[in-house]
Amino acid sequence: MTAPADHHLDAYWMPFTANRQFKKAPRLFTKASGMHFWTDEGRQVLDGVAGLWCVNAGHARPRIVQAIAEQAAELDYAPPFQMAHPKAFALAQKVAALAPTGMGKVFFTNSGSESVDTALKMALAYHRVRGEGHRTRLIGRERGYHGVNFGGISVGGMVANRKMFGAMLAGVDHLRHTHDPARNAFSVGQPAHGAELADDLERLVALHDASTIAAVIVEPIAGSTGVLIPPVGYLQRLREICDRHGILLIFDEVITGFGRTGAPFAAQTYGVTPDIITCAKGLTNGCVPMGGVIVKDSIHDTFMQGPEHLIEFFHGYTYSAHPLACAAGLATLETYAEEGLLTRARELEGYFAEALHSMRDLPHVIDIRNTGLVGGIELSPRAGAPTQRAFDVFLACYEAGVLIRTTGDTIALSPPLIIERAQIDQIVGTLADAIRRVA
């Protein structure tokens, strides 16, 4: 018989969580430092997922903690509409300096979900401003995850995130996903097969006509659906097709931004420059909520016309460029720079890949995918109980002192970029043991 739920947990409706199950056996963290969390029982847990893909520099970094505290005492809030504060401009300049050449403008939000909806609105407004207001269609991709606001779930392609919420945005279509285990199982790095899947965009152009399509949005690496790495040449081909038809290309780099793939952005890792990049998570090391939309100068400049006293883009948030978030962001980028963290995944990629692929012969493992410091281990689902096997592995790892993440029957790993080789060994050793023990 399961224990009754703890009543002091009742009021909080938890996100993306089986609430009733959790509250019967809660897993609570009360402290974090470096590579580790501590539970309310005092147990140390190695963080194998950077919190939620976001704590790239490790937990409780002194420079970031100090910056937040000092900012709260100096300027706790400043209105972002028709006013500003110096750190907003300083952070935008530093982010733009990390972005691909020609992407020099940054609009701040408070989350990845807000960044996506902002980017979609920018794309629609951009075409209207330049006299092509008939470009209203947005193209996402099956199995894509672009946050949980209405724009994001409309262009997203994860069924559970969509099915309960009605018709969503009109005029949205989807490319096929790139997951092809028959040809690409156990690929190390980018899979060899599948560049031609980008040609699915030509099918949608033929169906809808290019003159109706505003933008295509994809994750360079589809993270939340189970770590799907882009096939060799796929993103390049998508870029070429968008250019051919005057369609904007948006990269959702909320997960891949700030060092996860061994470069500041996956756009640089794969050598493809989009028109717009969405980011969040690693921007502030997860310390204060913040997101950003990085835009080509030419897109921004298109809006800068007409009388100078008029607002050019009717969009923004009360907490855009919040002073505490900007302070955290500046300290985070300084920490990344001082410790070489934005390229560290490239140095560890080979060791991480070898460790992950050492599990290929374990029971129930049907695929392993990796790039930089991100990996996915896909397990065969239990008959009649999809997701349960992976969740049991998650619980076994947690009890053994390692935090992993599951999405469906895929285990996702994305450790802080400060990870050492011995900690990679600990994560993989614990995970392998859990996979062996879970039937």
Oligomer: single chain
> Which structural class fits the helix and strand makeup?
alpha/beta
Low-confidence stretches: none
Total DSSP helices = 16
Top keywords for this entry?
alpha/beta, globular, 15 strands, seven-stranded mixed β-sheet, 439 residues, four-stranded mixed β-sheet
Walk me through what this model shows.
The chain has 439 residues and is α/β, with parallel strands linked by helices. The protein contains 16 helices and 15 strands. The strands form three sheets. A seven-stranded mixed beta sheet has the order 4-10-9-8-7-5-6, sandwiched between helices. Strands 1-2-3-13 form a four-stranded mixed beta sheet. β2 (36-39) and β3 (44-47) form a beta hairpin. α3 (62-74) packs antiparallel against α13 and α14 packs parallel to α16 (421-437). The longest helix has 18 residues, at 112-129. The chain is globular and about 65 Å long. The model has no long low-confidence stretch (mean pLDDT 97).
